[in-house]
Amino acid sequence: MASYPEVGDLRLVAAIARHGSLGAAARELLVSQPSASQRLAALERRCGARLFDRDNTGARPTAAGQEMVAEAGHILGHLERVFERSRAAAESETITVGTIPSLAMLVFPALHVALPHLRTSQVVDHGPRLVDWVAEGSLDAAFVAIAGQIELPKGVTGQVVGVDRIGVLAPATCDLRSTDRREFAGRTVVTYTTDYSGEELDGRVVALGATPYRAATAETAVRLGRLLGHPVVMPRSLLRSYLADTDRELVTPRFGGPRLSLVARVPTAPYWKDALPVVGREIGLSGVSAHS
User: Fold this and answer.
1) Where's the HTH lysR-type domain (predicted)?
2) Residue 290 scores a pLDDT above 80
3) What is the pTM of this model?
4) Which of the chain's ends, N or C, has fewer CB atoms near its CB within 10 Å?
């Protein structure tokens, strides 16, 4: 046997067997009957056996033809499912995603909701390192709040998911009742944010007549606030995660908020288009796209 049969050969054999006619098979395959006849003759020469008995009443498979028809159906069936199976494999693949430690408890559960068919290998580290890992290919993506504050590496893009407004957590040990300037004056305020705006946030606290006490992580900020009886100024997504029944959340626009972004290589995987709004809503961000 000189070579393997081509897909067109298999489709022709299957069509002839299905219709019992070379002409009808040619019409189904949108080719001329002479072209179909020539292809069949060439296939029979390469196979070394006659595949169909042909006369005025039609075409009937020989013993060799019956075997060829069965094999053709089997092979074409596999080929028809190639794309479907490839898509299914893509949907069940594992992606490696990173974020900073304080956001891990929010980002990874949100990804599970947004991309239920993908398994996420989780990585936590500092934002700049995560961005570098995306650039080198160690990470598929990262969720960080610094994407708009740094120069991203070549071939890497940042896509805003939403804004994480800064709120105020008043623990039971703190008598703060409002975000009025007079309420803040003279107090120590624990601060935490997820981007590089820590100094700016501290400056706004100072402008209210208070003394900022910057914490290293979100959990540290909340624990310090409860221990010392100080209000805590931090992103609301994290604030709500740590909010206890005895705590109070005070909402104010005066502190702004970091922008959480997806950082990924170009071109960005298509599934993020629908996933990002879901991630933003699950985390509780503002300004989230209404898409999906």
Assistant:
1) 5-62
2) no
3) 0.68
4) N
